Amino acid sequence: MSNVSTVAFSVFLFFFLLVTILGFVAARWRRAADMGSLDEWGLGGRGFGTFIAWFLIGGDLYTAYTFVAVPALLYAGSAIGFFAVPYTIVVYPLIFLFLPRLWSVSHRHGYVTPADFVEGRYDSRPLALAVALTGILATMPYIALQLVGIEVVLQVMGIGTEDANWFVKDLPLFIAFAVLAAYTYSSGLRAPALIAFVKDTLIYVVIIVAIIYLPTQLGGWDAIFSKATDSFATANETNADAIAAGSVAPKSAIPAPLLHWAYASLALGSALALFMYPHSVTAVLSTRNRSVIRRNAALLPAYSFLLGLLALLGFVAIAAGVKVTNPQQAVPQLFENEFPDWFAGVAFAAIVIGALVPAAIMSIAAANLWTRNIYRAFINRGATHAQEAQQSKYASLMVKFGALLFVLFVSTTYALDLQLLGGVWILQTFPAIVVGLYGRWFHRWALLAGWAVGMVYGTVVAYGNPKVGDPGSHFGSPLNEFPFTETLVYIGFTTLLINLLVTVVLTVALRAAGVDEGTDATSPDDYGADLGDEDVQAELDPEAAAH
Amino acid sequence: MSQSARWTLILVLLAPAVVLPLLVPLYDSEDPTLLGFPFYYWFQLALIPVAVVLTVVAYYLAKAGDRDRAAKR
């Protein structure tokens, strides 16, 4: 059944089981009152200090995205994949500037989700519903990326085959899904928090070995870069006709000038998207004060350096002669070829657990959004604590199931494209959330219209994008020509601009027409409030109503 | 330092960390290489410590600003 050694598989299984058991035990860890309430299940009692919070935030960003999705692009000769580095540089100054304001207004008014804030700021339940639905939808393809990460590791280990039977073929995926669903369901946020320690230790060990040991084995970075460049040149020569015909993408270690805008817009678009995901907002709001957010923004880029070196494992795999048809298997295959068996097992465990943790965190955050802003706001206004906790558990299962559907039915070229599709959607909440933190000039109905136009336009364009060499296929690329030009730009970026344009134009029109713009529940002073100020809650209560 | 001067300074500090990584033509070349890394790769990696230093300075400025604000209350 397995094409890796028994040793590698046993070591992998040991860590995997360890984590699974920890996940279940976590339910008992630092238990406060009872697990039956949403507060306990969804925010882990919020007794986490800075140190644990730091691990949790890191866990959100450094995942299968880093180990599998990004190196896959570089392995395939698409240097544009390195945009992940500028993305993770640009995002921290933005967090530094935007999120302390969200923290302040949320801690003064008891906002637990971005939808709460939007409802308070714009006095609009439809807009809050739109923001909540977008958060849930956008999280699914992001979790899908994590599932793909787990899947390729299991494939490299020989579980599941290219069998014609769809169930056998996707068995690794179903196993991963089942484990994730089971332990998140029983332990809530405590599971990922406790596992984050095991995960980060494993990941650091694997990364350090991978970026120090592997290059020395392969003649140093000089040799790695020149071997990668040579292999791209050879591939381009072999496929010269197909490249000229546009059915094969040319390979390159540095993006062509044609792709400069694509590169910059992917980086900026991803950075603007990241902190609006429900799980990012949960993490930020659970910090102690404004200052902690800024301190984290200054410290977290340390992770970006590792991300960059991990991305380059795509080139290391080429230099090591790894030949895989699915580029996403490149790094797991590299580990299997180059590491001693026992350490390959450790590395596989690191990748899989590194995908499980963020997937769990993301699904819980999306589930809380469902319970608070849809279930309690629209379906059952008088819900009890137990009903809410039960709703969140069901919702987190549904979100993971939605992610599974994305993996099975949205066949993208790269898993990275799934996350970028989520980005297209979540970016449509930018005008309401981030611009709303600075002013209230936008009209609530204009924001809703801009959001709707952006969602439809972005989805239609992404759907209509065929893969290279496969006309008629869908979701083939996160890039599209910017309207009225031939410049390729990230769809999410273009869509955000269109969204903003619609919002501005309609705001002017609606204001001229004197349409009621509702009452702002917040005051300018709220956005700079800090712990110790009047009415600022140290900890948010997800079961209490916003005020 | 007044609050507005302080925040202008913070914005000026953070601007390069946002803008430089997005200016692809600035670092779109093979040479000069460093420790085997083409310029394109090492320059982007080198921007990380630069961004860290800028953000840490901005953090202390903002923290002092918050302290002043609290003292006035």
The overall strand count of chain A is 2
Class based on secondary structure composition and strand pairing of chain B? mainly alpha
Estimated structural class of chain A: mainly alpha
Domain count of chain B: 1
The rounded Rg of chain A comes to: 23 Å
Architecture (CATH level 2) name of chain A = Up-down Bundle
The portion of residues assigned to helices of chain A is 55-70%
Residue share in helices of chain B? over 70%
Distance between the termini of chain A: 58 Å
Largest interface: A-B, 45 and 37 residues
Q: Which regions of chain A contain 5 or more consecutive residues with pLDDT less than 50? A: 38-46
The largest β sheet of chain A comes out as: 2 strands, antiparallel
Whole-number mean pLDDT of chain A: 84
The number of strands of chain B is: 0
- For the record, the count of structural domains of chain A works out to 1
Shape descriptor of chain B reads: elongated
Set out the fold topology:
The complex is a heterodimer of chains A (547) and B (73).
Chain A: H1 6-25, H2 38-43, H3 50-61, H4 64-75, H5 84-109, H6 114-122, H7 125-156, H8 166-169, H9 171-187, H10 190-217, H11 220-238, H12 240-245, H13 260-274, H14 278-285, H15 290-299, H16 301-311, H17 313-319, H18 330-338, H19 341-379, H20 385-409, H21 415-426, H22 430-438, H23 444-464, E1 479-481, E2 488-490, H24 491-512
Antiparallel strand pairs in A: 1-2
Helix pairs in contact in A: 1-9, 1-10, 1-19, 3-10, 3-14, 4-7, 4-17, 4-19, 5-13, 5-15, 5-16, 6-7, 7-9, 7-19, 7-20, 7-21, 9-19, 9-20, 10-19, 11-17, 13-21, 14-19, 17-18, 18-19, 19-20, 21-24, 23-24
Chain B: H1 3-19, H2 24-27, H3 39-72
Helix pairs in contact in B: 1-3
